[in-house]
Structure to design on (516 residues):
């Protein structure tokens, strides 16, 4: 599903962002990507959705080789992924429903099928009643649910979440995290970058920890360790 | 409705102020170009008016039989440069002189013998009314055996030539300068509109929109803005023309094709401005 093999990523002025990172995330898996700010979590996610290319090494996602991928294939890869960010990234001048529908429209989905599919995912994230609301009329947690609905509407095989609860209060965090768990339970792989260790401890999921661009710990490979010792 | 058209029109609805500002900016920069265009059009009209008076007159030797002149007239009319050739007999010439030179009426009436020669007056087609062609035709007219002398006001035609060249040079240089300024202003305006939607473009890419999909509504929107700006510029130019025509001097307005060219120019710059701005933006994000 997602396979990193000896991946290095250097930025022209930023030095090495990733150093020899290798891991494999299987279909339907839930994996946390942890580490301090600047550890390389976002770079890993950007490599997965082909916003960046590895300097060396191989990144394979859903059958696409990101390393040597042609620019025109990038949108095709992204349609197989759902991506959620800390800052939601909703279009402010469109309603919740329009924001979600937009992700279908760009793929050239049949117009007749769009409304039904949009309502189905909005119902799934518990926001059917607020379909006509604009982002500014929604709470942070609700906005993130719209973003998740948008990520889900194309029925992705992988959902990438970059600090999805970073801007949310505890209650909203629990709600959004539960939603991601439900999504995973229905078969979608979830990769969630976070530095919220309470959240990580709550669930029995795989943990991949980065430190200064290097993979420090992978619970699928390494010996289990005392959770309290984790950063 | 087609998605591209819908997205392009929605952009106007979502950012009405910025859209209106873009259209207004485009309108005024094209209006300046349009005003200059009006000057050029009217100057050309005036020059054409003067040009129409370019004429070559071949004076016929006394005693030439009218039949010989009539045959030659046919030949002259067949010259590629010639629009019309008219035979003016001695009597016609005298009658015309009497009508035109009123102050000499008494002298002309008392003449015992008509001193005026008959002549052939040759008018040239537009495009051939410059010194080179006029001299060339005059030379050929001299070749006819019965032609005594040929006149065409060489100095005057040469001055007209220079005036025409000057007008063309000024038109091209100043016109190009105005056009470049319009292109820069319109390009910047369109670029601002694209930058304002940078976030939206980034989000479109994240959800898997192709560059073509992102670009098309922007191109259409740019073209529509240019088109509206162009229409407004033509309307403003017409207003200026109407005022000038009424209060200052009688003037001419653009032909339908020229007005359409201004609107088309606006649409084209809007389209190209969008294409380059979005292209640059897509490369960057």
């Amino acid at each position: 599903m997602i396979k990193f093999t000896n991946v290095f990523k250097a930025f022209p002025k930023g030095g090495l962002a990733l150093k020899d990172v290798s891991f494999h995330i299987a279909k339907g898996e839930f994996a946390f990507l942890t580490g301090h700010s600047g550890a390389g979590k976002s770079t890993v996610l950007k490599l997965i959705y082909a916003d960046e290319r590895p300097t060396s090494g191989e990144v394979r996602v859903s059958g696409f080789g990101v390393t040597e991928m042609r620019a025109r294939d990038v949108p095709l890869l992204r349609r197989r992924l759902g991506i959620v960010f800390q800052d939601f990234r909703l279009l402010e001048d469109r309603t919740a429903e329009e924001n979600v529908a937009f992700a279908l429209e760009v793929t050239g989905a049949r117009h007749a099928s769009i409304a039904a599919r949009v309502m189905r995912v909005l119902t799934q994230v518990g926001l059917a009643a607020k379909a006509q609301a604009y982002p500014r009329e929604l709470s942070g947690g609700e906005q993130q649910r719209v973003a998740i609905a948008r990520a889900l509407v194309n029925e992705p095989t992988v959902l990438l979440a970059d600090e999805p609860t970073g801007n949310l209060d505890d209650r909203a965090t629990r709600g959004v995290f539960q939603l991601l768990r439900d999504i995973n339970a229905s078969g979608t792989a979830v990769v969630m970058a976070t530095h919220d260790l309470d959240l990580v401890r709550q669930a029995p999921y795989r943990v991949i920890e980065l430190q200064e661009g290097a993979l420090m710990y992978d619970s699928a490979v390494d010996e289990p360790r005392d959770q309290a010792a984790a950063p | 409705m087609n998605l591209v058209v819908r997205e392009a029109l929605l952009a106007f609805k979502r950012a009405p102020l910025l859209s209106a500002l873009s259209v207004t900016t485009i309108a005024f920069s094209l209006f300046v170009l349009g005003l200059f265009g009006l000057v050029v059009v009217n100057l050309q009209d005036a020059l054409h008016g003067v040009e129409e008076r370019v004429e070559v007159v071949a004076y016929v030797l006394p005693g030439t039989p009218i039949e010989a002149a009539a045959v030659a007239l046919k030949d002259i009319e067949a010259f590629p440069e010639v629009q019309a050739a008219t035979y003016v007999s001695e009597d016609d010439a005298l009658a015309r002189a009497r009508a035109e030179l009123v102050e000499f009426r008494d002298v002309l009436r008392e003449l015992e013998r008509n001193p005026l020669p008959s002549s052939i007056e040759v008018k040239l087609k537009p495009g051939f009314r410059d010194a080179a062609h006029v001299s060339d035709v005059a030379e050929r007219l001299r070749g006819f055996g019965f032609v005594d002398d040929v006149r065409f006001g060489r100095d005057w035609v040469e001055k007209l030539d220079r005036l025409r060249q000057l007008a063309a040079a000024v038109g091209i240089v100043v016109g190009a300068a105005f056009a470049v300024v319009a292109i820069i202003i319109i390009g910047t305006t369109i670029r601002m509109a694209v930058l304002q939607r940078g976030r939206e473009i980034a989000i479109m890419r994240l959800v898997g929109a192709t560059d073509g999909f992102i670009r098309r509504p922007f191109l259409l929107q740019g073209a529509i803005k240019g088109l509206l700006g162009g229409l407004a510029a033509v309307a403003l130019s017409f207003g200026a023309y109407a005022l000038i025509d009424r209060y200052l001097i009688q003037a001419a307005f653009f032909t339908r094709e020229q007005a359409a060219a201004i609107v088309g120019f606006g649409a084209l710059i809007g389209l190209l401005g969008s294409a380059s701005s979005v292209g640059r933006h897509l490369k960057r994000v």
In short: Strands of chain A lie at 2-11, 15-25, 30-34, 56-61, 64-65, 81-85, 158-162, 189-193, 206-211, 214-218. Chain A touches chain B at residues 49, 71-72, 75-79, 83, 89-91, 93, 102-103, 105-107, 150, 154 (CB under 8 Å).
